[in-house]
Amino acid sequence: MIAALALTAALVVAPTASSADCTAESGAFTWGFKESFRAYISGSIANGGWTTDGDLGYETPAFFSEALAGSLALDPIEGELGVEGSLRFTGHDGILDTTISNLRFVVESPERLTVVVDLRGTTQDFVPVDSVDVPFLSGDLAAAQWSETGDALLLEGIPLTLTAEGAEAFGTYPAGEAFDPLDLEVSTSAECAARAIEAHESDGSLPLAVGATVLATALGGALTAVLVARARRRSASAEGPSSGV
Ligand code: HEM
Q1: What's the gap in Å between 95 CA and the centre of ligand 1?
Q2: What digits encode the pLDDT tens for the residues 119-141?
Q3: One domain for residues 151 and 212
Q4: pTM listed for this prediction
């Protein structure tokens, strides 16, 4: 009985067990960084501009790369894709000089993504900053549009807000400040993209939660059966002597 119940529980948990089959290793992104910052930098106040290097590029009005690489499980979604290269903003005749490099999109769950970067420059008050692995922005994957194109999973319009660590490193905007939304394209098969979308729509953790409930019910049932059997044995042996055995 326990074996049968455990098998039932395993079958219900099974959809998450095959997640290793769907791991993406490349992708692309398009992202404006922050429109008001670009306007400030390129306008008459800062009189500046920006450059990119490595595998990053810029085409008005957004930064982009088609060379994201890493390991991102898709069923459910979790892992990271990053890109070699940097974005450098300059202005005020070089007084403002901020470089953002080693951009990584870390997916924590079907609901949450973190943009992790290395950041070098100064704050608005000219305090030097040189920080690595800054969890710069927090992304709301639940609010993004999920779709697939046949060979890619698209996560479009991911809202991004500045984290406390990001606010400290960038040194101007407060935590919670909205940056431009991010469009991510993850190279994968239509089947894996569909599975990622399905896991997202069922809240990612649902198959596991259902499995855990069934397992708990099964174990509870098995425990009850054992206790009833023991009680029966006990009452049988309690009756034993009086029945003269
Ligand atoms: C000569 C030095 C600087 C001057 C005179 C200056 C001046 C200004 C002014 C007047 C604004 C307001 C712009 C507006 O409301 O449209 C502004 C905004 C801003 N400044 Fe500077 N600034 C200087 C240096 C810096 C530095 C070193 C940073 C470091 C990153 C910085 C980052 C910013 C940011 C992020 C904004 C907000 C842009 C937005 O509207 O999104 N500034 N600055």
Answers
A1: 10
A2: 999 999 999 999 999 999 999 99
A3: no
A4: 0.78
